[in-house]
Design brief:
It contains seven helices and 14 strands. The chain has helices spanning about 1-10, 20-30, 60-65, 70-80, 105-110, 160-170, 235-240; strands at about 10-15, 40, 50-55, 85-95, 100-105, 120-125, 135-140, 150-155, 155-160, 175, 185-190, 195, 205-215, 265. The strands form three sheets. An eight-stranded antiparallel sheet has the order 1-11-6-13-4-3-2-14. It has a four-stranded antiparallel sheet with strand order 5-12-7-10. It starts with a helix and ends in a 17-residue tail after the last strand.
Amino acid sequence: MKTAFDKDGFVLVRGLFTVPEIDKLEKCLKLGHVTKHAFDLPDGEKMNSRMVIFNHPGVDYTGLIGRCRRIVDTTEKLLGGEVYHYHTKINMKQPGTGGSFQWHQDYGYWYKNGILFPDLLSVMVAIHKCDRGNGCLKVLRGSHKLGRIDHIRIGGQNGADLDTLAECKKILEQVYVELEPGDGIFFHCNVLHSSDQNHSDRKRWVIIPCYNRMDNDPYIDHHHARATKLVKVEDSDLLACDVFDDVTGKWFMDPSIDKTIVAEKVNKDVTSLVENPPEYKI
């Protein structure tokens, strides 16, 4: 796995989570305690990408996804050291209205947050089937070896410099990452990736825990977490967890404090406060 990750910048794991584990995640999200903090990010093509971001995993089921050993232990092996939970994104492309994500590197955003080294990765896990019809992830194989490239504002997002991107596409293979519910992909923060709009009649929701190495602590305070000890849980704790409504200490991100994007909260009466992580009992 490490060899493939270092070569391609990503590694795909089929069945990373079981169907019952994903069904439980969707049940948790449907209750609205997490999704009420959603915001819309214009894609520059007249549609919006809707997402929720929380900076500490917390004790509820959505947080246990990002604390379980099958993800965290693997991430530490791929990055070569202890990691902490930088944040988790839940991207919610609704049928017929879900916007695109421009070609970008995550480090194109995160470097601006005072993170000196590209020792970060993301783990995208499919909640619903993801395919070309509903705007699945696309990656350029091996693009992490380019290093960080310049980014420009496109809609409310940051996108890779278009001239550089055009040259990259000439020499690097584009891979459509089609996933069944529970499949996951670990990908390096410098991998160029994007996704198209969802013009289908199907949802395309994914959850994406993101991690930074503990020795790569940002040198400035910003809208995501600085180095915070990550309390892991056993994989078996997922199906044993029945905490769906306690979102204490998750620190949902208010898009107005993120200077790297232009976005608008869906529920303007919902307050997103900067919080310390909760006391973990698991």
